[in-house]
Amino acid sequence: MDIYTIIFLALAVFIFLRLRNVLGQRTGSERPPFDRAARDVLQGTQDNKVVPLPGTVIDQPPPLPNADDTPPTNRWKGFAEPGSALAASFDAIAAQDSSFDPKHFISGARSAYEMIVLAFANGDRRALKDLLSSEVYDSFDAAIKMREKNEQKTETRFVSIDKAELVNAEVRDRTTQLTVRFVSQMISVTRDKTGAVVDGNPDKVSDITDVWTFARDINSRDPNWKLVGTGSAQ
User: Fold this and answer.
1) Cα dist from 179 to 87, 106, 165, 166, whole Å
2) pLDDT score at 11
3) Which long-range contacts (CB under 8 A, 24 or more apart) does 169-174 make?
4) Which CATH number describes the domain made up of 85-233?
5) Which of 188, 179, 185 shows the shortest CA–CA distance to 211?
């Protein structure tokens, strides 16, 4: 062993002893490492403060509203003015039927309006049965029978549905009723068995305003609405 090896060994022993004196030795009774974030959270708890932990919370439900929170004023924006009777009716419906959505309803009502008008013109009783209440169906069926008796046919063509707006809403004995005002343009004509026009004009576009009421049983599993009342105005 040469002199340089002896010097390096002595130096290594010296450094080891110095580090041992500075760092000490584990005895098994030391406190575990204390995370600063955990310390801040505990301190915040003691001071009645909320100190958020770092990181992202997954699937965290939204906080419950306070009892004194006021409901949003624009909940029915585009369908009812805040504080109006119609908005209050929407609130009452939504309280019993969480699926209620006026936008979705109006979209379906527009489709139903066109389907019913065309089915009536064509005498399509099967289609009408699925869309009308029994009372309204009986009324439509009577009109169709009268046409058939007189050997008449009605031709109806939609040009446009310019407006469909909710004008009334209410809940009656777990049945929701919504009234819609439709403004449309259509061409309608009734002909006899010879093809002669007995009502309407095949070359004239008429402005039509209908006020229809649809209803749905909240307890029913059937999500579809049925026409329960009709009215019109020129």
Assistant:
1) 14, 10, 8, 6
2) 56
3) 169/86, 169/89, 169/90, 169/93, 170/89, 170/92, 171/89, 171/92, 171/93, 171/96, 171/218, 174/96, 174/217, 174/218, 174/219
4) 3.10.450.240
5) 179
- Give 219's pLDDT tier (boundaries 50, 70, 90): confident
C-alpha 99, offset from chain centre: 7
Please answer whether residues 108 and 161 qualify as being in contact, where contact means their C-beta atoms are separated by less than 8 angstroms.
no
| Among 111, 201, 190, CA closest to 152 | 190
pLDDT tens readout for residues 88-134: 999 999 998 888 999 999 999 999 999 999 999 999 999 999 999 99
Rounded CA separation 146/129 (Å)? 18
State which H helix or E strand residue 132 sits in: none
What's the Cα-to-Cα distance from 128 to each of 36, 189, 216, 228, rounded to whole Å?
A: 71, 20, 16, 12
DSSP per position, 144-212: HHHHHHTT-EEEEEEEEEEEEEEEEEEEETTEEEEEEEEEEEEEEEEE-TTS-EEEE-TT-PEEEEEEE
* Crossing angle (nearest 10°) for helices 134-149 and 102-122: 30
Tokens (6 digits) for 222 = 């059937």
